[in-house]
Amino acid sequence: MEITTRNNTEYKSKANDYVHEVFQLVKDRNQGEKEFLQATREIFDSLRPVFLKHPEYIHNGILERITEPDRVITFRVAWEDDTGKVQVNRGFRVQFNNSLGPYKGGIRFHPTVNSSIMKFLAFEQTFKNALTGQPIGAGKGGSDFNPKGKSEREIMRFTQSFITELSKYIGPDMDVPAGDIGVGKREIGYMFGQYNRLRGGYEAGVFTGKDPNHGGSLGRKEATGYGTVYFVEEMLKTANDSFEGKKVVVSGSGNVAIYAMEKAIELGALVLACSDSNGYIYDPNGIDVETIKQLKEFDSKRIKEYTKVHKNAVYHEGCMDIWSVACDIALPCATQNEMAKDDAIILIQNGVKAIGEGANMPCTEDAILAFQASGVLFAPAKAANAGGVAVSAMEMSQNSMRLSWTVEEVDEKLKQVMKNIYTSCYNAAESYGHPGNLVIGANIAGFLKVADAMVAHGIH
Ligand SMILES: NC(=O)c1ccc[n+]([C@@H]2O[C@H](COP(=O)([O-])OP(=O)(O)OC[C@H]3O[C@@H](n4cnc5c(N)ncnc54)[C@H](O)[C@@H]3O)[C@@H](O)[C@H]2O)c1
């Protein structure tokens, strides 16, 4: 494509046509994959101004290539339950883009896992990992296996079967998985053990999120939640504000939610509510994170048990109503599409000032638009929750060097990464004509890094 005059009307329409045509192509090729199409649509909308400045990306077909995964691996996972019955689940690994480094992204065990969800997560990961500034590509994997109600041995047998197949496609310089929903350090431990058994060696850098006692990084467990709060803190700073004295609501009570609450409290906030998939608790005295840790990390109990220890707290059945709790800052940290437009409107009416996405794509497109239209500060997931993968990349470095950094060293580096991410999102939004819009800023800043590497590596 020959483009000589930039920023003129003719070229503007060429850039728009390009985005429109490629989106049509993506839609036709990925019919019915609603989460994946939702994620691509958001990116495409943000990138229009980029193609106005950079016709070379059109010339190199970057949008067509960046939306097509390098490969999607689907496989059968057969395993035997405690009664001796054979069970079959489906396993996935989407290796989306390795222009910046080995594929990197978590593994999710949840009954809702399907091809669309895997692809959306891996696609988002492409931009997120680029934003960290570290040498990591992007992938995501998982299975529709439901760990709820399974015995420890069933989880081990399933995980070993899953990794026996996946081991053919991963490795420290090839693809480095980590945890996600339903996959914590216990499951990573089983995967790591089985992988090494199959390979007959000890490849420390093949998984991240390992136990710090054997190859994991200190500070990894806390990284996503802490990182989200560090990012929101930077965002608040530009509005001369902080977490001090703020009322905060956090959805979820898993890995991300727990450490987001912990850091917000450390910075002087009062966390009023948190949830699990059954319901939410409201504690007017402020959520006691140690009780949540005990319930979720050690006892595997439902969140309603919290009220047995804290008599002032109230349990509400149904997790979605958590957004009716009035707050200054809302941190959705549970799952995708958990905050819809109606929730956004209630939050806005209740005076919310800032939103930080700890989970991946927790807010629907309508909800984001409503926040932006009302001047609510909005921190998008691919920037705000990149702290987890950033510390995962630090785990890879430590494994390669065969040494361990202290928790303070890791936290300091994490803080710096989150500040850098904030600055690059902020600057990209400004230089492409959308000051303050961090959704657009994150998409553009992440895209530019990957796109430049793709151009440099030639067409393939
Ligand atoms: N763990 C990480 O390092 C990391 C990094 C980046 C992004 N994420 C994303 O953060 C989100 C949470 O991941 P996690 O690692 O904390 O998982 P987790 O399995 O530790 O916790 C998930 C929590 O959400 C709750 N939940 C599920 N559906 C819910 C709903 N509809 N409403 C309220 N609560 C609900 C579960 O009960 C659980 O408490 C996911 O979107 C994940 O992809 C995680």
UniProtKB/TrEMBL annotation:
<dbReference type="GO" id="GO:0004354">
    <property type="term" value="F:glutamate dehydrogenase (NADP+) activity"/>
</dbReference>
<comment type="subunit">
    <text>Homohexamer.</text>
</comment>
<feature type="active site" description="Proton donor">
    <location>
        <position position="140"/>
    </location>
</feature>
<dbReference type="InterPro" id="IPR006095">
    <property type="entry name" value="Glu/Leu/Phe/Val/Trp_DH"/>
</dbReference>
<keyword id="KW-0520">NAD</keyword>
<comment type="similarity">
    <text>Belongs to the Glu/Leu/Phe/Val dehydrogenases family.</text>
</comment>
<feature type="binding site">
    <location>
        <position position="179"/>
    </location>
    <ligand>
        <name>substrate</name>
    </ligand>
</feature>
<feature type="site" description="Important for catalysis">
    <location>
        <position position="180"/>
    </location>
</feature>
<dbReference type="InterPro" id="IPR036291">
    <property type="entry name" value="NAD(P)-bd_dom_sf"/>
</dbReference>
<dbReference type="GO" id="GO:0006537">
    <property type="term" value="P:glutamate biosynthetic process"/>
</dbReference>
<dbReference type="Pfam" id="PF02812">
    <property type="entry name" value="ELFV_dehydrog_N"/>
</dbReference>
<dbReference type="InterPro" id="IPR046346">
    <property type="entry name" value="Aminoacid_DH-like_N_sf"/>
</dbReference>
<feature type="binding site">
    <location>
        <position position="128"/>
    </location>
    <ligand>
        <name>substrate</name>
    </ligand>
</feature>
<dbReference type="InterPro" id="IPR006097">
    <property type="entry name" value="Glu/Leu/Phe/Val/Trp_DH_dimer"/>
</dbReference>
<dbReference type="InterPro" id="IPR014362">
    <property type="entry name" value="Glu_DH"/>
</dbReference>
<dbReference type="InterPro" id="IPR006096">
    <property type="entry name" value="Glu/Leu/Phe/Val/Trp_DH_C"/>
</dbReference>
<feature type="binding site">
    <location>
        <position position="125"/>
    </location>
    <ligand>
        <name>substrate</name>
    </ligand>
</feature>
<protein>
    <recommendedName>
        <fullName>Glutamate dehydrogenase</fullName>
    </recommendedName>
</protein>
<keyword id="KW-0560">Oxidoreductase</keyword>
<dbReference type="InterPro" id="IPR033922">
    <property type="entry name" value="NAD_bind_Glu_DH"/>
</dbReference>
<dbReference type="Pfam" id="PF00208">
    <property type="entry name" value="ELFV_dehydrog"/>
</dbReference>
<dbReference type="GO" id="GO:0005829">
    <property type="term" value="C:cytosol"/>
</dbReference>
<feature type="binding site">
    <location>
        <position position="392"/>
    </location>
    <ligand>
        <name>substrate</name>
    </ligand>
</feature>
<feature type="binding site">
    <location>
        <position position="224"/>
    </location>
    <ligand>
        <name>NAD(+)</name>
    </ligand>
</feature>
<feature type="domain" description="Glutamate/phenylalanine/leucine/valine/L-tryptophan dehydrogenase C-terminal">
    <location>
        <begin position="217"/>
        <end position="458"/>
    </location>
</feature>
<feature type="binding site">
    <location>
        <position position="104"/>
    </location>
    <ligand>
        <name>substrate</name>
    </ligand>
</feature>
<feature type="binding site">
    <location>
        <position position="255"/>
    </location>
    <ligand>
        <name>NAD(+)</name>
    </ligand>
</feature>
<dbReference type="GO" id="GO:0000166">
    <property type="term" value="F:nucleotide binding"/>
</dbReference>
<keyword id="KW-0547">Nucleotide-binding</keyword>
<dbReference type="InterPro" id="IPR050724">
    <property type="entry name" value="Glu_Leu_Phe_Val_DH"/>
</dbReference>
